[in-house]
Amino acid sequence: TGNVGKPSTGVNPLRGQNNVQGACDMGCLPNVLPGYVRVDEEGQRRRFEEYYGVRLPSRPGLTVTEMMHLAKEGRVRAMYIVGENPLLTDPNSTHVEEALKNLEFLVVQDMFLTETARLAHLVLPSTSFAEKEGTFTNTERRVLPVRRAIEPLSGSKPDLEIVCLFSSALGYDMAVKGPKDVLSEINFLVPAYAGITYERVIAGQRIQWPCPSKDHPGTKFLHRDMFVSGRGRFHPVDFLPPSEWPDRQYPFLLSTGRILFHYHTGSMTRRVEPLNLFSKEPFLEMSEEDLCALGIEDGERVRVVSRRGSIHIKVRRSERVFQGSLFLPFHFSEAAANMLTVDAVDPVSKIPEYKVCAVRVERLA
């Protein structure tokens, strides 16, 4: 269509937070090392083994959902969770809680005592972005600096410092002293980042990878005329039904998601009173037709039940949802949406089916 490889064109995914691109670039996926080197590529994997002086697994790891299943079975015995709150974000919360409680050792590193952190054997208080320095990579592959605005609050430390101290306590002293050392390591191991030095980033150069050398300006368009493998291919796909559809026992189709005023599990945003003025409590959106059919008033508290659990919540009449469908934000721990969701996953991406699960709505006596 001519809409790739030119200004104001291209395809960018809408990520959930600002450094998803950077995290993936650095190997925060179960099947790759930094720079998207597949773990089963022996030659490339050996570079990392020689650099770190360790043997690395040659088989892909697990997704978070898969980890929880194995933790419940006792086959994963310890977890180190950094800046995540899976007790609220992962599907089938009852199963997640059972899995986390079954661990022999759970470490949570976070700036707040989240629902997950309350289950931990060890909590490591970390700082916010405003109390540390480093870089992040945004969705257009541009590496940007993070500059400290205030000193860390008493008792907390930046994530990098915590990881280094934890590693030293386990007998492995890292040679990393700060963000500059980390980016130097990345420059050496990840060819696409080779020329994106800390000095260039701090000097204000907004470089997009791939940038193979220190004198390279970066790559504004990743694919201008052709993709790496040639012309782009369109793949026809077949519809795969979800793991469960509404039926007589659970007649509504529930979809969960976000609202404008809160971020993920609300660990930060629900502490901001101006945001709470707009959205302070959980709600379930339901069509007027379904409210009338069940004799439920707008604002009435109801019980929502799935095959995995139930919550009590206020109903809100909505023109946004169709008859037979419901919408539920997942930001609120007091009516946790993932008490209801199913932990079935997409066979390729392994992403859970947050958007489809069968429920029923009951009036409270």
Question: Brief description of this entry?
Answer:
The protein is α/β, with parallel strands linked by helices. The chain is built from ten helices and 13 strands. The termini are far apart.
Describe this protein's structure.
This protein has two domains: 19-208, Rossmann fold; 252-363, Barwin-like endoglucanases, CATH 2.40.40. The protein is globular, with a radius of gyration of 23 Å. The chain has 365 residues and is an alpha/beta fold. 24% of the residues are buried. A hairpin with a 5-residue loop joins strand 6 and strand 7. The termini are far apart. A six-stranded mixed beta barrel has the order 8-12-9-11-10-13. Strands 3-4-5 form a three-stranded parallel sheet, with no helix packed on it. Strands 1-2 form a two-stranded antiparallel ribbon. The chain is 22% helix and 17% strand.
What is the string of helix and strand elements? HEEHHEHHEEEEHHHEHEHEEEE
Oligomeric state of shown chains: single chain
CATH second-level architecture of the largest domain: 3-Layer(aba) Sandwich
User: Per DSSP, what share of the residues sits in E-state strands of 2 or more residues?
Assistant: 15-25%
Indicate the percent of residues in helices. Answer: 10-25%
Q: For the record, what CATH class of the largest domain applies?
A: Alpha Beta
Using the alpha-carbon principal axes, give the shape.
globular
Number of domain modules: 2
CATH fold assignment of the largest domain: Rossmann fold
Number of helices: 10
The count of strands amounts to: 13
The helix-and-strand class reads alpha/beta
> Distance N terminus to C terminus?
58 Å
Radius of gyration: 23 Å
The major beta sheet can be summarized as:
6 strands, mixed, barrel
